[in-house]
Amino acid sequence: MSEGRFPNGFLWGTASAAHQVEGDNRNCDWWEFEQEAGRIAHGDRSGIACDHYHRYHEDFAMLRELNQNAHRLSIEWSRIEPAEGEFDSRQVRHYRDVIADLREQGMTPMVTLHHFTSPLWFVRKGGWAAPDSSRAFLRFVNHAVDQLGDLVELWCTIIEPGIYAGQGWLTGEFPPGRRGDLRGVYQVTSNMHRAHELAYAAIKRRSPDAQVGLSHHKFLMLPASNHRRDRMAAATAQAFLDRWPVAPGSWKRIVEASSDFVGIAHYWAQLCAFDPRLPRQQFIRRTNPSGLPVTDMGWSSDPKWMRTVLDELRLLGKPIYVTENGLASNDDTWRERYIVDVLNEVRLAIDDGVDVRGYFHWTNMDNFEWARGYGARFGLIAVDRKTLERTVKPSAGVYARIAAANSLPT
Ligand code: BGC
To answer: How far does the centroid of ligand 1 lie from the alpha carbon of residue 17, in Å?
Structure first.
């Protein structure tokens, strides 16, 4: 491959999530959570979000003009199955229109079935902590794949189970807002693990040619020093994050059994040091590495970590999609530099032998950033919160040029 070029057919896209962009998504746990005072920064609520539910055609047209050939979006379970076992054909029709529109505009859809939001009827029955949650999810998956499967070749079952469980049951930043509930984390991840396996088998039964995977949030844990105890601290923290806690084997074995590809969301890394004064944090002190820029999420950012993350996956022998990567900042010149630098790392990983098939930047437009509200802006396109007018940022142009050339600038 000539220098700087990406493999033929490489997918260049952005990723989004229904609740963060669609607007008026009332029948899910997140909507309810946002109504409680103090949950979301600055008292924000998702509200109309980006009104993407109605503006999807224009939004996709902008992405097409920016030379993107793929987009990862999620379909909203609570719209499609508003009451237990009752499916709304109007909403199914809507998502058929959305996905068909993407395709007509020349973009490959990657469809996510669960991106952090769940229907209210499901959470009333215990949500993802309930033993039969995977079965309930499966019914939705079956319906979604029956109704939409002819339009979709790439499915992402569940987004970042570790983040979902950690934020909902440990830090309380996500619904149901529980804190320090390790048992809950264990239940949720094990149910999501089961749900992924069931969904994988169900989709493959219906669409044997479809490629099915999930997205794993790869938060890199680096040793704070070369001391053995710090290396152990980092390895322990990483193992906790990368395993399904209930898995009999490692993540590798699970991936082998029930994924056609591995989706990786990567944003940041922290240093880990052993600290005997922190029993409640498993004796691990986590800090941001000094000397690196920190995004508006408080995450330190270094494009070089991407190669480390991807190289580790080589042994899995599976195709890899970067399902999310980006940074929250109002400094778009930083984003411009970051995109070039991080894609250079993706290139290097490909040269190292990692089978990376596509990159989905997080995200196409500034949107409802969960507990951070509208203050944290990851988008390539700005959205005026009063008028909802979209304005392409210069970083989108940088990404567009790379996508068009299927190559980095020389
Ligand atoms: C989530 C996105 C979120 C992003 C930035 C990812 O873990 O999938 O929904 O907006 O992180 O916080």
So the answer is: 9
CA of 228 to the centre of ligand 1 (A): 33
| Beta bridge partners of residue 358, listed in sequence order | 11, 321
Q: Which atom in ligand 1 lies closest to the alpha carbon of residue 369?
A: 10
Low-confidence ranges of the chain (pLDDT < 50): 245-249
Contact residues for 358 (Cβ-Cβ < 8 A; gap 6+): 10, 11, 12, 13, 70, 321, 322
Ligand 1 geometric centre to CA of 369 (Å): 7
Q: Distance between CA 184 and CA 170 in Å, rounded?
A: 8
* DSSP assignment of 260-305: SEEEEE---EEEEEE-TT-GGGTTEEEEPPTTS-B-TTS-B--TTH
**Model confidence over 253-305: pLDDT tens digits?**
666 668 999 999 999 999 999 999 998 888 999 999 999 999 999 999 999 99
Count of alpha carbons within 13 angstroms of residue 27, beta-carbon side = 14
Burial of 186 (0-12, 13-18, 19+ CB in 10 A): middle
Confidence (pLDDT) at 256: 64
Residue with tokens 């050339």: 405
> How would you classify residue 215: left for phi > 0, otherwise alpha for psi between -120 and 50, otherwise beta?
beta
> Tell me: the pLDDT tens digits for 184-225?
999 999 999 999 999 999 999 999 999 999 999 999 999 999
Residue identifier of the C-alpha nearest atom 10 of ligand 1: 369
